[in-house]
Structures are given as structure tokens and as C-alpha cells.
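re: that chain from earlier
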Amino acid sequence: MTVKVRFAPSPTGYLHIGNARPALLNWLFALSHGGQFVLRIDDTDVERCRDEYRLAIGEDLAWLGITPHELHRQSERTALYDAAVETLKANGRLYPCYETADELERRRARQRARGLPPIYDRAALALSDAERAALEAAGRKPHWRFKLDGAPVSWTDLVRGEERVETTSLSDPILVREDGTYLYTLPSVVDDIEMGITHVIRGEDHVTNTGVQIAIIQALGGAVPVFAHANLLATTAGEAFSKRSGALSLRTLRRDGYEAMAVASIAVLTGTSDEVHAYRNLDELAAHVDLAHVSRSTAKFDPHELDALNARLVHKLDHATVADRLAALGIGGGEAFWFAVRDNLAKVVDAALWWRVVEGPIEPVVAAEDVDFLGAAKALLPEEPWDETTWGTWTKIVGAATGRKGRALFMPLRQALTGLDHGPELKRLLPLIGRRNTLARLP
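^ sequence. v structure.
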């Protein structure tokens, strides 16, 4: 059996880091098993879906390193859903209901007041043909419910273990709205059957839905896939991420200079028993991801952890990996510059600060009590060519001539040459700054 998974986002907003979790879990599972990944756009909600969001989904997944093997849009597959509806009607599993939303809410309120579960009472099944005709003549249009058979639904979840849903505690789900459009459940089930999806890996908020979907799959004669329900990625306060808020959208993280693999690593490994480590590529990450290691508690995402993880990843990047990005930022200096500043960066874009330090102009920081010392250092500046030994040679000579040592020797030179009191090792930075710039910055 070839493993086949799917990620089915709705184009109603930009993908955020919480969406990245199921997308990546599916992709990594496919990678680990030599399988296929289907991107299925759930765009049946014509009021809320927008093309710009649909296109952005592909861009964001590509940034993460996900390249779908198949791409489908549910809005182009309605003929399949229509056929499934007719099958369910013919089998007596789909029936029309005429209650309005207000009527249903009042009925649920009465049930709660009587201490009964607020589930649909199947009153529509008791309607005669004449009563249904009268409702339709009065302008009522039916919505259509799937008739659950009351049998419990069980499955072995790759994350949660043995699961069981008692369908007697659920309302018969609405599959078709009054206007004839489909709710999420029917297209999802039909597509899973028709596309041959073998594994459904998604958030734990779908556990109850799974019981209903398995019942519908069986009613349609389809093969039931293997399910895995992972914990949801949430804020440190335990709140779910939302497309509407735009918080931590993948395109924002990309714009702000985060590494795709830092985002991928933290999105997948947070909320598992595995260490959150910055892997260099998705193949490496796939080798360390096990759905059985996913926790049952909420996976809380801390942006500060992403910052630290991103920095650790940047510190391991070789020059070839970042060369094009540095060039796009107008940064030169080649490998020598990159290896000089890499360990002082939280993001690759931060290298621009140190390139300004190298190229200038800068505002040297010179304390009044250090003017004579810096003048003496200037007079002792070696001739070029310079290399990584020049800083040590120069400071040794200056220290012997002025009697200064330690911080009193090094800090005034750093502040005069870089305008800062911290930064990369000057033994690497000084040859890049060069003798001309050094002379210009010393009083």
C-alpha cells in the first residue's frame, strides 16, 4: 500500500504557524513512508474564500519545503458530491429537515431545561409526504441530515490510541444546506474515498468528527483510512491561533526573516516528547518525528523559543546557503564576512548591521578619557596586508606602549571601530574594516 495523506486548508485567510503543524506532520509522514502528499483546497464557501489566500497557501507551503504531489480544489468536484448525495438518499441515510435555525435553538433550549442532551430529535423523519409538501409550498427549503445508525464507532488512533465515539450522543449531522451547498463533512469524506487517502493526520479538534466521517465512509462503501489526531499548537496562554487575527502568519514570519526550518522544527516538535531541535532540512526532521511521541496536552508555542531556535540554526548555516540572500541585501565580503558575523546573528537579515559597521560610515564612540589612548593606537596601526593575526599583534603593541590591558585596552578600540560595545571577534572583523576605515574612525 502506498501511503497517501492530505492537507485540506480553506482559503479564508493566510496560513499561520498553527496550520503549519498539520501540514508538516502530513508531509513528514509521507516522506518517512515514501508516500504522496495531496493539497486539497476546501473552497466550497464562496462567501469567505478568496483567490489571494488560495495562492498564498501554495507559496507558504513551498517556503516550508512542501511540494504537493497532487493539487485539487473542492469547488471543481461538486459532481462527485452530488453523486454521493444521491447514493445516500437512495440508501435511506440522508433525509430532509425543515426546521429553521431559531426553531432548532428553541428545541435545544427545552431539551437542556429538561436535563436532556441537546441533540436533534429526528422529528423530520415523522413528517408525512403531505406535511413535507405543505412546508415546501410555504417556502421552506430542506437541509439534509445523515442518519447515524446508533452503533459506536471505534478506531486505533496513531496519536491517541484506542478511540470510541458513541453516535447515540450526537445529532445527525447536516451535510447539505438549504441552498444546496455542502458543509465540510461530505466533500471531505467523498474526496478521501475518491483520492485513496490512506492516512488522515489532523488536529484533535476533529476527534468527534471522525466518528461521524467513518460512519459516512462506510455508508458510501469506502475504505476507512488510518487516523491520527495531534494536539493543537496554541499561544502560551492556551489560545488557538486564528487566520482572522493574522497572528504569526507564515508570510509574516518569512517577511521578518525567520528560517523556514526553524519554523518547521518548532511547529512540529513543540508538544511532543522529543527535544525541540533546529534541523537543517525536512528529511532530517522526518527521521526524528514519531506520531506516537505527540502529547495529549496542548502544545504551547513561545515566540521567544522560536527566536532562540532561529539563532541556533543561523549559526550553523554555511556561506553557500545564504550567499544569494546576502547579495540581495547588498552585503559583500564573501565567506570571510559571513563567518566573522554569523555567531552574532539572530536572523540572516541582521548581517546588514555588521556590513554597515564594516563599510561605514558609522558614529564612533569615543570617551574623553580615551582620546589620547586612541591617538597612540592610531600611530601604532600596522601596515596592510591584514589577516586574523593583525588584531592580536596590534593590541599587544598598543598595550605595551600605553600600559593598558583587559577591558581598558579592548573596549575603547571596539567602540571607536564599530560604534558598539559588543559584536563579532575583532580579529575577524578588523581585516574586513580595513586600514583606511580604521584610520578614519580613530581620533
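The chain has a mean pLDDT of 95.
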